[in-house]
Amino acid sequence: MAKISIDLGKGAIKEEQPNELIVGIDLGTTNSLIAFMKDGKPYALKDENGGNTLVPSVIHFDENQRATIGNSAKSYLIEDPLNTIYSVKRLMGKSYQDVDQVEGYLGYKIIDEDQERLVKVRVNDRFYTPIELSAQILAALKSRAEKVLGETVSKAVITVPAYFNDAQRQSTRDAGKLAGLDVLRIVNEPTAASLTYGIGLDMEEEKTVAVYDLGGGTFDISILHITQGIFEVLSTNGDTFLGGDDFDRAIMDFWIKENKLEVSTVNQDKSLSQSLRLKAEEAKKHLSTHDHFDAQIGTIHCQISKTQFESLIQPLINKTLAACQSALKDAKLEIEAIDQVILVGGSTRVPLVKASVEKCFGKKPFDAIDPDQVVALGAAIQADILAGNNKDLLLIDVTPLSMGIETIGGLIDVIIPRNSKVPVKAGRQYTTSVDGQVKLKIAVFQGERDMVQDNRKLGEFILEGIPPMAAGLPKIEIHFILDADGILTVKAQELRSGVSQSIQMRSQYGITEEEMGQMLLDSLKHAKSDMAIRALQEARVEAQNIILSSKKFLKNNVEILSEEERSTTQKLVDQLSESVKGEDKDLINKAMDELNEYTNPLAHRVMDHAISHAMKGKKID
Fold first, then answer.
1. Which of 382, 383, 485, 379 is nearest to 424 (CA)?
2. CB 357 within 8 A of CB 365
3. pLDDT tens-digit profile of 302-351?
4. Which is the catalytic residue, given 174, 189, 384, 542?
5. Could you tell me the residue ranges of all domains in the chain?
6. Which of 62, 101, 257, 381 has an alpha carbon 20 to 30 Å from 117's alpha carbon atom?
7. Rounded Cα–Cα distance for residues 54 and 150 (Å)
8. Is the pLDDT of residue 395 over 60?
9. Is 89 labeled as catalytic in the residue annotation?
10. What distance in Å separates the CA atoms of residue 479 and residue 427, rounded to the nearest whole number?
11. Which entry of 80, 174, 182, 213 is annotated as an active-site residue?
C-alpha cells in the first residue's frame, strides 16, 4: 500500500522522503513526552534548554481562555484550582456515569448529569471535552518538537493503555487530529515498552512478557506473547483508578489525621487540598531515597517516615499483585511461564513496588530504562518502523481511511479508524431516537471529517422490522467486517427481536492515492472547525433530548411540583430552547447545566414520592 505524505506547512501532498520524521508520543495521566529516532536509536525529546523530557499533563486557562501547558501551569494548581485541569486521561472516552469516583478530589468542575453522554469540564463559562484538553497537551508536545528539531512534525504514533476501549482509543485519535497530527497508529503501552527493551525486534524470538505499568493515575498488568514480531495481548488486568495519585492521597489522609483536621474543610478549600497533594507527592519521591520527610504548610506539620509510608501503601500494592495473579489466570499461565517482567510508569520507582513485583514473579524485573520514558521510546521505534526505516520488520497492512455510519445531526461515528490492521472486525450498539420507530437507515461513509457531507458515501441500506418500542429501548448492533482485500461487509441486527440485514461494498473503489491524500490533508486542515461543528451538533442533539424529557417531567408531575418550581423549570427550558437556535455550544451547555442543576433535586423528590406511593400499605419483613 502506497504511503501518502502531507506537508502541513505548504498545505499540499508531497512525495515520500527517506527517513521521514514520525514521532512517538506517550500521552500520560501525570506527565506526557515525545520521542524520536536518531541514528537508529530512540531519544526522549528534551525541552529547548536541554533539561526536562517530561511535560506535566496540566493545563491552566486564564480569564481570556488562553491555555498554559506543562510546568508553567503546575503552580496554578494551588493559585487557581478551578481553572487548572489535570488527570485528563482518566476522563478520555468516559460517560457522566463513569466519573463519580474521581469527581470528589478534582480541583475543577466536571459536568455530571448521570447520563450516558461523554463528560465535559467546565472552565468559567466554557465547556471542554477531554478530547479538546488532550489536544492542548499534544499541541504543546508538537510545538516543542518543532522548535527543538527545527522541522514540521505532522505524523505521530500515540500510545494508550492496553485496556483502553474503542471509545477511548477513538478519543485519543481525535485529540491528535485536533492538535494537527496525522495519527498513524494507536499502540498499546505494554507493546511499546517491550519494543524499547528490544523484545519482538528479533523475528526468531518467542517470549512471554509481563508488563507491570503503575503510572500516576492508572495501573495495568499485561501478559504478552511475542513471536515473529507479532505482539499478542493474552490478558490484561488492572485498575483505572489506582496509581501514584493514590499513594499521594494516602499520605494526605495520614497528615489530615495527624494534624486533627476536618476532611470536609480540606476538601472545600481547593488551594489547601492541592497544596497538601503536591507536598505529599514531594514526600513520596523523597522517601524513595531517604528514611524520613519533614515539611510545613502554614501551621500544618507534614512529617512521615519511610516505614509509615510503606505501611500506608502496602494495601494498594497488594491490589496490583492480585491483578497480576488474575491476569496470569486469564492467560492460563503459571508464573514460571513468564520470561521477563518489565516495569513501566514513574510509580514503579518506589522501592517497595519493585521489591513486591520481584517477589510476586520470582525474577528481577527490567527497569534499566527510565520507566517514565520507556513507553514513548517504544512509540518512536514503532514510528520508525512505519516510516519504513527499519527494513527488517514486516508491517501488517492497514486501512487507509476511517469508516463509519451517519448519526443524528449529520455526524459520522467512526467504527473502523484509519490505520486499523486488516482484516478487522469492529462493532457498536445504537438505538432509535423516535418512539415506535420500526425502520433504521444505515448510511456508511469513508473519510476523516466529522460531518458526513465532507466524506465519501459508500452505500446505505434499511434495517426493517424493528418491533415498535419507546425511543432508546431497541438495541441495534452494527458490525463492520473489512477483509484483507478491502471489501467491507456491514451487518446490522436488532438484538431483542433478532431482525438482521447486511450489505457488502468495496471500501476503496474509485479513490486514487491523490484523492486519499487530499482527504487526509483536508481532515487536518479543518480539524479545529470540524470539531467545533461536531461539538455544536452534539450539544444541540443533547439539548433537544433534555428539552423533551423536561417537558414530560413537568406534564407528569404537576401535582408534586409547586407553582414556583414549575415556573422556574419552564423558564430554564425556554432559555435552553432559545440557546439551541444559536451557534454557541458553550451557551447551550451552560443552559443545560443550569437546567440540570435546578431539576436534579426535583427529580429525586419525585422519585421518592413515587416509591413511597408504591410502598403505601405494604410491609417489609
1. 485
2. yes
3. 999 999 999 999 999 999 999 999 999 999 999 999 999 999 999 999 99
4. 189
5. 20-197+371-386, 202-368, 403-524, 529-615
6. 62
7. 19
8. no
9. yes
10. 4
11. 213
Domain 202-368 has CATH 3.30.420.40: yes
Q: Which CATH architecture has domain 403-524?
A: Sandwich (2.60)
Residues found in the chain: 621
**Residue 328 CB neighbour total at 10 angstroms:** 22
CATH topology identical between 20-197+371-386 and 529-615: no
CB 215 within 8 A of CB 29: yes
pTM, 2 dp:
0.74
CA distances in angstroms from 26 to 111, 137, 186, 618, listed in the order given: 27, 11, 10, 58
Is 354 a residue of the active site? Answer: no
Residue 423: cis peptide before it, omega within 30 degrees of 0? yes
Q: What is the pLDDT of residues 274-304, one digit of tens each?
A: 899 899 999 999 999 999 999 999 899 999 9
CB–CB of 387/22 below 8 Å?
yes
| Burial label, 307 (beta-carbon count in 10 A; 0-12, 13-18, 19+) | exposed
- The catalytic residue among 26, 182, 220, 494 is 26
**Helix, strand, coil shares, percent, the chain, to 5:** 40, 25, 35
Q: Helical H runs in 84-152?
A: 100-103, 130-149
Asked if 196 contacts 377 with a C-beta cutoff of 8 angstroms, the reply is yes
Instruction: Name every residue whose Cβ is closer than 8 Å to that of residue 501 and which is 6 or more positions away in sequence.
Output: 461, 462, 463, 464, 491, 492, 493
Which CATH homologous superfamily contains domain 20-197+371-386?
ATPase, nucleotide binding domain (3.30.420.40)
